Amino acid sequence: GKNITVQDVDGRLYPSFKPEVIRGVSSLKLRDDDVILCSFPKSGTHWSFEICRLLLNGRLDIDIIPKGYLFADAVPESELNEVNSPRIINTHVRFDRLPSDVKTKKPKIVYIRRNPKDVAVSFYHHTRKMEHYHYDGKFKDYLPLFIGGVAYGSWFDYVLEWETIIANNQELSILELTYEDLKEDPIREIRRVSDFLGVQRNEDFFEGIKDFCNFSTMKGRFKDKMEIKDGHNIFYRKGEVGDWKNWFTVAQNEWFDRIYEKTMTDSKLKFKYTLNQD
Ligand code: A3P
């Protein structure tokens, strides 16, 4: 259809996961060593999950605990509780709907973001592939929906809120990652994650993770696992910075830039829209 199926849960838009599971995120009981991975959809959640998982794990195993097992927005707490520690609980809910334990336990939070044009393109494909969205529109029809906010609401609201939270909550332990930095220099970023998680791993291991998690290796590794529809692996599409150039027309790009400037006037965030060019 031309409309994207989403639902309102307590005043916010979400995909059609069980409302009680979405609501349950804010009351999840955290363990002391839980890591919380936060992202707007399509910003590199699977990639950063895997990097964290391997760093915590300490060896490159293919005994896969897929990210999906710990996706708090759709997996009930009882199932999250079946997973061994340390867990990497991942969610796309906004900060105020994170587990209330976050304020008291102050777990390590990894927050990854990505430039909004690539997010829009990636989310467009994702929305078409995921059956629960019932969507088969064109990119030109999707873009205004993305800008206005569909599943999980507006990208702008999401990143602006995190910017404020980080600026005003020094006592929280938050690591900011970007998809573009991970692409640009994976080893540097893997080392940052390692330091943040407080694990002692050597440079050879970082090299190992880099290779184990590069796009095609990771895509291949998850090929026969869940998350496949009609032969397409839903979460591994192109894996590049700047694919938006193949989708945005010049007019759409100018339109987007105007909205960006207006919406982000008070923001200090800078995004890379291509690598090695700007
Ligand atoms: P594209 O649709 O642009 O290819 P998320 O995990 O948050 O759903 O994000 C999915 C996006 O990350 C998709 O972007 C996907 O291809 C990309 N991705 C997944 N694994 C990756 C990896 N190992 N390296 C680079 N990009 C990856």
Task: Summarize the SSE layout with pairings.
Blueprint: E1 7-9, E2 12-14, H1 19-24, E3 35-39, H2 45-57, H3 77-80, E4 88-91, H4 101-105, E5 108-113, H5 116-129, H6 139-148, H7 155-168, E6 173-178, H8 179-184, H9 186-197, H10 203-212, H11 215-221, E7 228-229, E8 232-233, H12 250-263
Parallel strand pairs: 3-4, 3-5, 5-6
Antiparallel strand pairs: 1-2, 7-8
Helix pairs in contact: 2-9, 5-6, 9-10
Bound molecules: adenosine-3'-5'-diphosphate.
Adenosine-3'-5'-diphosphate is lined by residues 39, 41-47, 118, 122, 125, 213, 215, 218, 235-239, 243.
Family: Belongs to the sulfotransferase 1 family.
Domain Sulfotransferase: 32-267
InterPro entries: P-loop_NTPase, Sulfotransferase_dom
